[in-house]
Write a structure and sequence with these properties.
ABC transporter involved in vitamin B12 uptake, BtuC, mainly alpha, single chain, 77% helix, transmembrane, 325 residues
C-alpha cells in the first residue's frame, strides 16, 4: 500500500497542475475567457467568439503543446536510462538534426505544412536508423559508441542545415528559423502526438522494474534475467519515435527532455514506474506554460516557444549543475 501511495500521489499532483496549465492556456490571450465561459463552451453553449477561440484556435494548440512536451520529456527519460547518463536528452543522437534537414528541405521546395511535417518525421526516422546502423557495425553496440555516433551524425546534419540556410530565399528564412527554434504555429492536429504519448506511457510503465535494473548496468540486468539487448533496442526505438513525433509537431524545442526528467529524479527518486508518467505530465505542463508565455508576452507578436524553454532551461540547468557539484 505504501508503494502504491508513493507512486500515486506525485502523479495526481502533476495531473492537477497539468489541468491548470491547460485551462490557463485556453483562457489567456487577446480575449480573456473566464472559467465559467469555458465551461459554457464545453457544455455546448457560450458565445460564438468564445467557441471559435476555444475550440478552433487555443485548445488544439494547447493540446499540441502538452503532447509535444510530454513526448520530449518521456523520450529524455528513456534516453537517460539507455545511455545511463542523467544529462542525456532526446536530441543527443542527432534526431532533431535529421528532422530539421527534412523540414527545411520541404520548405525550400515550397511544400505545404503537411508535407513539411511529414518530411521532418521521415528525416528523424532516417537519422535514428543511420545512427543505430553505424553504431551497430558488424558487432554489438555500447552506449558510449551509440553516443559518439550520434554526436558525429548530428554534426553532419548541422552542416547541411547551415548550407540550406545559406542558399535559402530571403522570404523563406523567417519560417525556417522559427522552425529551428521551435514553433507551434505549424501544429495542426494534436491527436497523433497525444495518442503516441498515451500508448508509450501505457507500454513503458509495466517495464519500469526492468528499466530500473537496466539503469544499474547491463551486466547486473542480465544476471537478474532481464533481456538486455531486446530492452535496449526497444527503448531506443521508443525514444526515437517519440522524438520524431515531437519535432514533427513543434520543431526543435530544446531543454524540455533534458531538465524535466533530471529534476523529477532529484525530487521523486529513480523509480522508472514513477519517472516515466511523471515526465510525460511535467513535460507537457512545462511546454504548455512556455507556449502560453510565448504568444502573450509581446502580443500581438509571437515568440518561438523554443526561446521561452531556453530562457527557462539554461538557468535551471546551471542550478542543477551547481547542486550536483
Amino acid at each position: 500500500m505504501l508503494i502504491e501511495r508513493r507512486l500515486l500521489w506525485p502523479l495526481l499532483a502533476l495531473l492537477g497542475l497539468s489541468l491548470v496549465a491547460l485551462v490557463t492556456a485556453v483562457a489567456v490571450g487577446s480575449v480573456t475567457i473566464r472559467p465559467l465561459e469555458i465551461w459554457a463552451v464545453l457544455s455546448g453553449h457560450g458565445e460564438p467568439l468564445h467557441r471559435t477561440l476555444l475550440l478552433e484556435l487555443r485548445a488544439p494548440r494547447a493540446l499540441a503543446a502538452f503532447a509535444t512536451g510530454g513526448l520530449l520529456a518521456l523520450a529524455g527519460a528513456l534516453m537517460q536510462v539507455l545511455l545511463r547518463n542523467p544529462l542525456a536528452d532526446p536530441y543527443v543522437l542527432g534526431l532533431s538534426g535529421g528532422a530539421a534537414v527534412g523540414a527545411l528541405g520541404a520548405m525550400l521546395l515550397g511544400f505545404g505544412a503537411a508535407l513539411v511535417s511529414g518530411s521532418a518525421f521521415a528525416g528523424a526516422l532516417l537519422s535514428a536508423l543511420l545512427v543505430f546502423g553505424l553504431a551497430q557495425g558488424t558487432g554489438s553496440w555500447t552506449p558510449a559508441r551509440l553516443l559518439l555516433t550520434g554526436v558525429v551524425v548530428a554534426a553532419g546534419w548541422g552542416a547541411l542545415i547551415s548550407f540550406m540556410l545559406a542558399i535559402g530565399p530571403a522570404e523563406r528564412l523567417p519560417g525556417m528559423l522559427y522552425w529551428l527554434m521551435g514553433d507551434l504555429n505549424y501544429a495542426r492536429s494534436p491527436w497523433p502526438a497525444a495518442v503516441v504519448l498515451l500508448v508509450t506511457v501505457v507500454l513503458a510503465v509495466p517495464a519500469g522494474r526492468s528499466l530500473n535494473v537496466l539503469a544499474r548496468g547491463p551486466l547486473q540486468a542480465a544476471a537478474l534475467g532481464v533481456p538486455v539487448r531486446v530492452l535496449e533496442r526497444g527503448v531506443y526505438v521508443a525514444a526515437s519515435l517519440l522524438t520524431a513525433m515531437a519535432v514533427t509537431t513543434a520543431g526543435s524545442v530544446g531543454f524540455v527532455g533534458l531538465i524535466v526528467p533530471h529534476m523529477l529524479r532529484l525530487v521523486l527518486g529513480n523509480d522508472q514506474r514513477v519517472i516515466l508518467p511523471a515526465s510525460a505530465l511535467a513535460g507537457g505542463m512545462l511546454l504548455t506554460f512556455a507556449d502560453t508565455v510565448s504568444r502573450t508576452l509581446i502580443a500581438p507578436e509571437q515568440l518561438p516557444v523554443g526561446v521561452i524553454t531556453a530562457l527557462i532551461g539554461v538557468p535551471t540547468f546551471l542550478w542543477l549543475l551547481y547542486r550536483s557539484r
